[in-house]
Amino acid sequence: MAAEVVAPEAGQPEIKTIDPASPKAEVPKAETPAAAPVGEKRADKANSQAGAALVTMHTVQSGESLGAIAQRYYGKSSDWKRILNANPDVLKGNAKKLKPGQKLRIPKG
Fold first, then answer.
1. What is the spatial distance between Cα 63 and Cα 89, in angstroms, rounded to a whole number?
2. Distance (Å, rounded) from C-alpha 54 to C-alpha 63?
3. Residues of the chain predicted below pLDDT 50
4. Given 24, 29, 77, 108, which residue has the most CB atoms within 10 angstroms?
5. In the CATH hierarchy, which top-level class contains the domain 54-107?
6. Which pLDDT tens digit goes with each residue over 80-93?
């Protein structure tokens, strides 16, 4: 079987059927995406949007507690540990480290 070219529909790529047993068959090489330059990260828009949908940011106000923040976002002050666990870099596992102006991640759900 020789290579058979199928005419594409409007807006579709050309499709070639190749018999790999044919001595003249050329197997097309897969295109690899270009590597990101050193020091830069490739942004995956779908993942960043999905991640954004899972977390809300909250700026701590004077007098707030994790219990009060949990009550606001979850309807139960007893869920304060979810916020504590989502912010190890900010609170370092201690709810008493809460200070006005801190930015906290509030997991959805």
1. 21
2. 26
3. 1, 39-48
4. 77
5. alpha beta
6. 999 999 999 999 98
Rounded to an integer, what distance in angstroms lies between the CA atom of residue 63 and that of residue 65? 7
3-state secondary structure 5-70: EECCCCCCCCEEECCCCCCCCCCCCCCCCCCCCCCCCCCCHHHHHHHHHHEEEEECCCCCCHHHHH
Q: How far is it, in rounded angstroms, from Cα 55 to Cα 108?
A: 5
Q: What are the structural domain ranges in the chain? A: 54-107
| Tokens describing residue 62 | 């004077």
Contact 55, 106 (CB under 8 A): yes
